[in-house]
Amino acid sequence: MPERFLLRDMPRLALLTVLGLVVLMPYIWMVAASLKPLDEIFRASLSLLPERLHAVENYGKVFAKIPVWRYLWNGVVVCGGILFFQLLFAVPAGYALAKLRFPGSGIAFGAVMLGLLVPYHVPALPLYVGFSQLGLLNGYTALIAPATISVFAIFLFRQFFKSLPDDLIHAARMDGIGEAEIVWRIVLPNAWPAATAFAIFSVVAHWNDLFWPLIVVNGPNYATPALGVLYFRSDEAGDDFGALMAAAVLMTAPLVLAFLLAQRRFIEGIATTGLKG
Amino acid sequence: MSASLAFPARRRTTGEALAGWMLTAPAALAYALMLLLPTLATIALAFTDYELGADGLAWIGLDNFAELLRDRGFAIALRNTILYVALVAPLSVLGGLALALLIETGTRGRAFFRAVFFLPVVSLPVAMAAAWQYLLHPTIGPLNAALRGIGIEGPAWLSSSDTVLLSLAAIGVWENIGFNLVLFLAGLTAIPRELYAAAEVDGATSGWERFRLVTWPLLGPTTLFVVTITMTRAVRVFDSVAVLTQGGPNKASEVLLYAMYEEGFTYFRLGYSAAITLVFLAIVLALVWLQTKVLEKRVHYA
Description:
Chain A is 77% helix and 0% strand. Chain A is an all-alpha fold.
């Protein structure tokens, strides 16, 4: 019987496979070209496998021409810094809005809802002027600071903390634990599902962002992976598609590998988190 | 109830208020500095002639907006953005729905195919744009090589003004379809199985009838959400334009955010760039407003 079912399922699986291959096409050709010598690429043959393996040369050229590790490290510092401050600001605020009654909480929540409507491109011009006045352009501060406030995170944590039982918090207060300590010792450990989902959402968004780094960063010292690919493309690679594809593979790999290892969490983090926003 | 056990009600409230303020203060400060004030400043800038490096600035009222109306480049950017959204939103929403249904109707390979289609969502857009540049290259690109194989001379996808917006839209669909697929899958799994059985009893025997009578109406709120989120994502198109075309050839792929970027950070005309930003913000807000309007009226089912 299962075989008959499999047979009936074949058209569906075949269709999904074809469509999946179409979606994977850019990856397949990107990897294939990164392994080929230039003359093979220019022959525009439809063979995926290289006749002469040129991987060492292509990837070697990327490592020789651009500071690959520096770009990846910048990506880690920027994403890590942003996430750290986002959690530092949003977790206490989310807790206060969910569980504490204080004058002004209504206005604060209104401000959060209003903030959700504003794309991050809107405050970009004055922020640029401000960082430029302070001499902070082209540095980690300019890359990290504007993203430290995430109204989305505040909203997400508020929703999540609302469902935490009040008894848990009352019990802690009975023991004489202060509100700030309650946040980090009682509330946050219970907020891991929301925190991981948000962390993935945040890291993917900022690792992949081009707009803001393009505005504030100048030169390779503080370039993020996205900028790194852009610089390599305009300065070094030109028409050397083999090396360019190798650079693209290297900069895309970290997040894609993380995704393949933790698909379910990623999909929950990005899409299901988005559903609530 | 239990709070009154430990403290007199009065002290409890002041203590709670104090704690509330202290815990929201860091977020409030960051909100004011990084979001509220700069956003207000953008709105103010749009009514000035401020240029970076200039000594001062003058209040010029609506002159920037008057210039926008006369600016051929801006008109093209606006038109291209609308066209891009009009292509990307329906195709990636319907595509995402079709894929979700295709995956949902069987049990095999669900997680696998979901991951495959979701991959573009987590891939570095700049790097993938470079991959697309190679794939769509007029002479050495595999796509045109394949077309030559069947006797068709393919166009210069990204460097001809006839096809550039279509090519960018195709990349946009590719970027968004997996995201929509996942949202639709979540919506589909929330539909109670019994409803399908009930519909079948009532004579909805074909798959299409069941889709029309059960799936589609119950998917209403999900669909509305997916449509708005896809449109707001598509209005923000920037990366692929910045990497692949810089708005060219001859402004054929100029879009709002790229025009804003160019005016602000290439020509340093910040006042004018702020005016473009406000148009962009107005479009985003209009989409949200539209969503709430439709939500009030249309998606009530039962």
